Known about the structure:
The protein is built from six helices and seven strands. By secondary structure, it is α/β, with parallel strands linked by helices. It has one domain: Rossmann fold (3-Layer(aba) Sandwich). A seven-stranded mixed beta sheet has the order 3-2-1-4-5-7-6. Helix 1 packs parallel to helix 3. The longest helix is centred in the first third of the chain and has 15 residues.
Amino acid sequence: MKYESELQYWINCFAKEGGRFNNGHYADRCLRMAEEQDDAFLKGKIVADFGCGPRGSLAWTTAPALRIGIDVLATAYLNCFGPCMLEHGMVYVTSTESIIPLPSSSVDVLFTLNAMDHVNSLSAMASEVLRVLKTDGLFIGSFNLHEPATPCEPQTLTETLLRKELLRHLHVASYRLALMHPKSPYKFMIENRLATTCDPNEKYVLWVKGTKKPVGADAAVGSPRG
């Protein structure tokens, strides 16, 4: 049911957008998350997006040596939207809920945009994301916090949960938290109206940038809340 609902969502989007996917917003979103002015930091890199969907989340940059979209439904998306997706200049890889079929330490830069709450096991997928990322590789993630679980998004993410499963394995360089705007989720983040506390009764957007620690180096996360 989860996968059927997710696929139907994208089928509806594809129809509403005239038989192709609009992806122009990804450049601004990804560069803001990375705190970069342009895509020069991706030049010659192997860059991946976990939970990419079919829209072409990395089509905005031609700087990388290779752009990889990772998604549990990648094969289903290609069956539905293949001709459109071929225009993205990306290699689409079908993951499972527990294994990303890429070699260990093969990715230089890994994005994930509001995808980690879609998986059944956050622990398993966080481990796989870290496995495929090179030591000192760059992780750039966007997470929605405190959203109630749904069939499509079974994880309710919190700062504590993300620290435990993912962030403690990173040297965190940037940790930005903002209230989620009810109509435009990233509005307060883009306006740099950052939160200094996290009310469990409110919904937030969290943007994290950091580099992968060597295996076994699990010191405290360098975030405002440790």
